């Protein structure tokens, strides 16, 4: 067992998971070119350190939309945690609370958002929403997230339809097992399916802005023109994401898309990034290129499948340690001191 790196956790998780469930978590859309590109692009960037700057006392904390995180790494929203561990999202949230960071709870969680919040008092939770075509039902979901104490609404905008995931097609993985369901979609005595909204448009974002006073984060913005539109439509933050390569295959890596989005936003709101972050040095590269923080998706699932809450704690702890180590080696005392001059192709 090699659990000294985030990638080591994947091997352990793979050994424990049902093969079709492993494929669901690990896989991407189409040829999985974007899935591979996300990690490969980080490897093509190098960090150029400064020296002799006496960086002994480190500062890794960030504040995002009023939520405090002890490191610039959030937990990205991922569905179906109870496929990885019986405690599911409860275990993830406890580990996130201990690591003092932020969990973006998926609308497609297998534990209700109220129960996630109750399991981890003190955890900073944001809620991810897929706008449902039934806007009255969408509003009910938003109200539940607000009442559970979620501090931001993360609206996923890259999924007007679901990506074509060929591993899932091959495995005929369409549904959760009988004993699990998307608890946030309970409606009376039935559970609604997750439905994508092909007609999703800026008008929906405007309506959500009226519906809630929570800050709205748009997840899945990649084109600079959309980043500018997001500002016009009062987004409080933007998340550069290609959904971990699970939606439009053939998209560039997120780290390669980040600089143009950062330039378009011009500092007006925080820009977050996810996709392929596997090392503390990846976090530093993203921050140097203008991200306010990053999020990790699969590594958290690998930790959860390998060893439940402890596994997620280990994954988050490894990232924190790697960030601190890389910061010192880069001659920086704070995650706020990173700038574009320290990133070069390698
Ligand atoms: C198994 C799995 C489930 C996911 N479920 C959701 C989801 O419910 N909502 C969402 O907005 N994104 C979802 N995502 C995308 C993640 O939020 C994130 O964009 C992606 O995982 C980041 O890439 P990484 O896995 O390389 O860190 C999911 C990703 C995975 C791998
Ligand atoms: C339930 C799914 C729509 C969750 C998701 O976003 C994903 O699998 O990428």
UniProtKB/TrEMBL annotation:
* Alphabetical keyword list: Flavoprotein, FMN, Oxidoreductase
The terms under GO molecular function for this entry are: FMN binding; oxidoreductase activity
Q: Which cofactor does it need?
A: FMN
Sequence positions that bind glyoxylate = 24, 165, 243, 246
Xref: InterPro entries: Aldolase_TIM, Alpha-hydoxy_acid_DH_FMN, FMN-dep_DH, FMN_HAD, FMN_hydac_DH_AS
Q: Which residues form the FMN hydroxy acid dehydrogenase domain?
A: 1-346
The family database entries (Pfam families) matched by this protein are listed as: FMN_dh (PF01070)
**Which CDD domains did the record assign?**
alpha_hydroxyacid_oxid_FMN
Name the catalytic site residues.
Answer: 243 (proton acceptor)
Residues reported to bind FMN? 77-79, 106, 128, 130, 156, 219, 241, 274-278, 297-298
Please give the GO cellular component terms listed in this UniProt entry: cytoplasm
Family statement drawn from the similarity comment of this UniProt entry: Belongs to the FMN-dependent alpha-hydroxy acid dehydrogenase family.
Name assigned to this protein: Alpha-hydroxy-acid oxidizing protein
Which organism was this protein described from? Nonomuraea turkmeniaca
According to the entry, what is the taxonomic lineage of the organism?
A: Bacteria, Bacillati, Actinomycetota, Actinomycetes, Streptosporangiales
């Amino acid at each position: 067992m090699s659990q000294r790196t985030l990638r080591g956790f994947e091997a352990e998780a793979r050994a424990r998971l049902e093969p079709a469930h492993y494929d669901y978590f690990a896989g991407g859309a189409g040829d999985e070119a974007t899935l591979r590109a996300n990690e490969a692009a980080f490897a093509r960037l190098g960090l150029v350190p400064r020296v002799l700057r006496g960086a002994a006392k480190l500062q890794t904390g960030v504040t995002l939309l009023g939520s405090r995180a002890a490191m610039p790494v959030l937990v990205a929203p991922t569905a179906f945690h109870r496929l990885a561990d019986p405690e599911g999202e409860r275990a993830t949230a406890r580990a996130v609370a201990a690591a003092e960071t932020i969990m973006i709870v998926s609308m497609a969680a297998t534990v209700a958002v109220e129960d996630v919040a109750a399991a981890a008092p003190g955890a900073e939770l944001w809620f991810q929403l897929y706008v449902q075509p039934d806007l009255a039902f969408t509003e009910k979901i938003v109200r539940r997230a607000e009442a559970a104490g979620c501090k931001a609404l993360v609206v996923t905008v890259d999924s007007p339809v679901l990506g074509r995931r060929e591993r899932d097609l091959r495995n005929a993985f369409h549904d959760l097992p009988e004993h699990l369901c998307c608890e946030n979609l309970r409606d009376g005595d039935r559970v609604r399916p997750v439905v994508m909204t092909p007609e999703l448009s800026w008008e929906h974002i405007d309506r959500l802005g009226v519906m809630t006073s929570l800050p709205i984060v748009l997840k899945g913005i990649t084109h600079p023109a959309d980043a500018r539109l997001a500002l016009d439509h009062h987004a409080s933050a933007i998340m550069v994401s290609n959904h971990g390569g699970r939606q439009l295959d053939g998209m560039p890596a997120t780290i390669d898309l980040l600089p143009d989005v950062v330039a378009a936003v011009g500092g007006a709101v925080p820009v977050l990034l996810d996709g392929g972050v596997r090392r503390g040095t990846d976090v530093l590269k993203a921050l140097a290129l203008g991200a306010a923080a990053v999020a990790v998706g699969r590594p958290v699932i690998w930790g959860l499948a390998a060893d439940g809450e402890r596994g997620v704690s280990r994954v988050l702890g490894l990232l924190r340690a790697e960030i601190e180590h890389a910061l010192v080696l880069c001659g920086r005392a704070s995650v706020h001191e990173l700038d574009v001059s320290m990133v070069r192709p390698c």
